[in-house]
Amino acid sequence: MSKITITGIDLAKNIFHLHAVDNTSKQVKAIKLSRLKLTEYLHRSEPVTVAMEVCASAHHWGRLCQLLGHEVRLISPQFVKPFVKSNKNDRNDARAICEAAQRPDMHFVPVKTVEQQAVLSLHRVREMLIGQRTATINQLRGLLTEFGLTAPTGRRALHNAIPALLEDLTKISPTFLVSCIRQQWEHLGELDQRIEDVTT
User: For the segment 148-180, what is each residue's pLDDT rounded down to a tens digit?
Assistant: First the structure.
C-alpha cells in the first residue's frame, strides 16, 4: 500500500469521514470513524499532513494533531467548496478538503491556541449580550410607546427615565404590565453588569 502523505478530515459531532492520498494524489484510504476511533487513528498514524475545514471544533482537532506530530492545514470552507465533486456529502467533502490542501497557492488558517480561542469566545459572548441588551431596549421603547409614553433616546437616558415612565404607566395600565416592564428594566441592568464583567 502506498504511503499516506495527506489526510483530509470532514469534521462532525460523531462520525468523521477521512480521505487519504499518497504523494501522487492517488487515494490510499477512504473511511469513516467515530470520535473515539478518530482519536485512536490519529495517535496510531505516522506523522502526515492533516487537512480540515475551519469550523467550531477545527482548532481543537488541529491542536491534537500538532501534539501528535502531524502538520495541520486548516482551510476556510469557501476555498474547499470549488473542489467538491458531484453531490455534496461527508465523503465528498473529505475528498475536497484533501484536494484543496494540495494546492500550492491555498491560504491556510493558523491553528489557534486555547488562550486565543478563549479570548475569541469572550468576544462572542459579549456580542450576544449586547444584542440581547439592544433587543430589550427596543422592546421597552415599543411597549411604552403603545401606551403613549415616549422614552428618551440613548441607553443611559432611557435607564434614568424608566422610574418616572413606570409611574406614569401605573396610572393608565394594569399592574401586571407595569410589573412585566419593571422586570425587563431589571433584566437590562443585569445585562449591563454581565457585559461589564465580560469586558473587564
Answer: 999 888 888 998 999 999 999 999 989 999 999
Give the position of cell 484533501: 98
pLDDT digits (tens, 9 = 90+) for 113-156: 999 999 999 999 999 999 999 999 999 999 999 999 998 888 88
Contacts of 101 (CB under 8 A, 6+ apart): 6, 8, 49, 51, 73, 75
Across the beta sheet with 71-75, the strand order is: 27-34, 15-21, 6-10, 49-53, 71-75
CA–CA dist 200, 48 (Å, integer): 42
Task: For residue 162, give the 3-state DSSP assignment.
Answer: helix
Domain covering 6-111 assigned CATH 3.40.1190.20 in the classification? no
What is the residue-wise DSSP string for 39-105?
HHHHHHSPS-EEEEE-STTHHHHHHHHHHTT-EEEEE-HHHHGGG--SS--HHHHHHHHHHHHT-TT
DSSP 8-state symbol, 173: S
Q: Answer for the pair 108, 167: CB distance below 8 angstroms, yes or no.
A: no
The C-alpha atoms of residue 122 and residue 141 are separated, in whole angstroms, by 29
Pairing of strands 6-10, 15-21: antiparallel
The amino acid that residue 61 corresponds to is: W
Residue 100 has pLDDT above 90, yes or no: yes
